Amino acid sequence: MKTTINQVKDYVGKDVTIGAWLANKRSSGKIAFLQLRDGTGFIQGVVVKAEVAEETFATAKRLTQESSVFVTGTIVEDTRSPFGFEMQVKEITLIHESVDFPITPKEHGTEFLMDHRHLWLRSKRQHAVMQIRNEIIRATYQFFNDEGFLKIDPPILTGAAAEGTTELFHTQYFDEEAYLSQSGQLYMEAAAMAFGKVFSFGPTFRAEKSKTRRHLIEFWMIEPEMAFVDHEESLHVQENYVSYLAQSVLSNCKLALNTLGRDLTKLENIKAPFPRITYDEAIELLKEKGFTDIEWGEDFGAPHETAIAETYDKPVFITHYPKDIKAFYMKPDPARPEVVLCADLIAPEGYGEIIGGSQRIDDLALLTERYQEHQLSGDAYNWYLQLRQYGSVPHSGFGLGLERTVAWFSGVEHVRETIPFPRLLNRLYP
């Protein structure tokens, strides 16, 4: 019976064949321990010289790292293994012999590993991170489908830059100027006016010349948009969504989390409701924590966000930022027009902003005024203004950065490990 490693639990006591690669091995004169991987997981294959053909044991002894094989044997339970099972190998068929695989069990520098990212992905640690990423994606679709959202795909190429061009990648679209999208939000607002509750999931691009552990040039965003929903209602959706993701990862990725050495109590604590603090309160808190130079009207950097997050044992919303440091489309607070109905969700443990969201301006005159204040490009977004001209309604939305969320849940330090092939300021290879 041919199967995969993640299905061997269904074949205890039975003989199966698995196509695999050799991740590592150790052996003595009479027994060989093969660490096998097949893309679905890792399992140990035990080859006992006295119990197999001479040729089989000889093959096991000479196998090199990342050689590909078909391995046949009996699946047995093994309580000593984190996986819980191992294979008692009976036969080995060599498919391809790998020679001088460059990533050995010894320590390698980050740049070396990034240059060999196409091979580094095979490691147990990277496998665990990608499993967590996959679970977050799966749970995202599950959550929004269950909540009655329709998935809509906004364009990646746009004809203008609604929030300025300094962080956008420029390209030529036949005889027109074009940009790679830094957010699908404006298009999702149009979709919400057609379908009520929508979400997108796709790549976005920011030409920020940043080298921090939180930044990528190309990353993936989940961007829900909701008609007839105000700021307060949107905050409830956000905290329920993040809580759902955390509990899904805990339930379905326990082995991966253990592989990464993640403190599970940190994830168990991610349950709605989340604490909230206004921008005004955040300024006062920062001054108390020694950031005496911070002034009202300044945006927060990574050290500020980390200091605020350390005050709480859960993710924390920072709400009601000054309108002058936020996007033109955010709705001012009717009770205090100098601030907007928005929130950033700051993750604990120094992982920074995970979500940015707001209630959108639904008044045409005010949106036009704000559009002009930001000196945005002429007629390119007339269609966006028309959303307030034909049946405008209160609406809200937010964006969650996938890679930062993967880093947070996984406990890895840098977002470069949370995407298969990261694009960084000085890296376009491989």
From TrEMBL:
All copies of domain Aminoacyl-transfer RNA synthetases class-II family profile, residue ranges: 132-430
- Alphabetical list of SUPFAM superfamilies matching this protein: Class II aaRS and biotin synthetases, Nucleic acid-binding proteins
What NCBIfam families does the annotation carry? Answer: asnS, PRK03932.1, PRK05159.1
Q: Which GO terms describe its biological process?
A: asparaginyl-tRNA aminoacylation
Keyword vocabulary terms for this entry: Aminoacyl-tRNA synthetase, ATP-binding, Cytoplasm, Ligase, Nucleotide-binding, Protein biosynthesis
Designated name of the protein? Asparagine--tRNA ligase
Q: Report the enzyme's class at the first EC level.
A: ligase
**Cellular component, GO, one term:** cytoplasm
**HAMAP family in UniProt:** Asn_tRNA_synth
Provide the assembly information: Homodimer.
Instruction: Report the EC number(s), separated by commas if there are several.
Output: 6.1.1.22
Keyword flag Membrane: no
The UniProt GO MF terms for this protein read:
asparagine-tRNA ligase activity; ATP binding; catalytic activity, acting on a protein; nucleic acid binding; transferase activity
Q: Which organism is it from?
A: Amphibacillus marinus
